[in-house]
Amino acid sequence: MATFVLVPGAWLGAWAWEETARALRGRGHTAVAVTLTGLAERADLGGPQTDVNTHIGDITGLVEAQDLRGVTLVAHSYAAAPVTGAAGRLGDRLERVVYVDSAPFAAGMCMLDLMPPQIADQLREQVTAFGDGWQLAMPPIDVLGTSSSLDGLDEAQRERLLAHATPQPFGTYTQPLTDAVDPGPEVDRVLIACHDVKALLEAGIPMLAHLTQPPWRRFDLPTGHWPMLSAPAELAGTLDAVASWARQISAARA
Fold first, then answer.
1. Which of 18, 221, 4, 180 is nearest to 83 (CA)?
2. Span of the secretion signal (predicted)?
3. Which of 27, 88, 231, 241, by CA, is between 20 and 30 Å from 70?
4. Residue 227: which residues within 8 A CB-CB, separation 6 or more?
């Protein structure tokens, strides 16, 4: 069975993974959800100094403190940045990295680089005016839906998302990833494409082209950008399939 470390995207905490983690445990896996510094129940630990390196440390610190081995790191959305950094630091503890509707970051890239310049400028102005210079609030649901698919989220789930969301430390958006060491060819690499990333792949975005080729394995999940809320059981089933497929290949080679 696999050991999953589940890392949530912007504005979220471990709470977002509850149903998926429960379903994974029901299948016999170990599933540990992370709340990153400055978010959810750890909101009071955040500050202007909180950045991507802080969150990389959260992930590696949890894995080492719990002495986890054979780890499958799972990154949702923003978490692609710190998970990419953490993957290069975990050494032989890491078995697999999975990007859920996200993709690995390149060294020198930050979250704002993924946005049109005018949107990035708007976010900076919002943080300055309303976020004490360091906090980015989750936008209203209608605004959120203009950049990320809300498919599969019913009214109750949308309300839950907004009710539990906490402002994102903006340093995690502005700081480039400085540590993007390749974890090595023995690490399994998986993409779970929901509607957002699937659309980008179909559009032929050059920076994502490598994700459609070996050693990457791709699994499609027909739901919106927050599958741990819109399709938690299906996401758990896909993650189980990811681990099961690898075990079958290893057994066949043995």
1. 180
2. none
3. 231
4. 100, 101, 152, 192, 194, 221, 234, 235
C-alpha separations of 230 from 129, 147, 222, 225 in Å: 32, 17, 10, 9
Tell which residue, 90, 23, 30, has the closest CA to residue 63: 90
Do the Cβ atoms of 103 and 114 come closer than 8 Å?
no
Domain, as residue range, for 39? 3-253
Radius of gyration of the chain (CA): 17
Tell me if the pTM is above 0.85. yes
Q: pLDDT (tens digit, 9 = 90+) per residue, 63-118?
A: 999 999 999 999 999 999 999 999 999 999 999 999 999 999 999 999 999 999 99
Domain count, the chain: 1
Q: Which amino acid is at 24?
A: L
* Among 192, 7, 175, 185, CA closest to 107: 175
- Token pair in block for residue 11: 């504005």
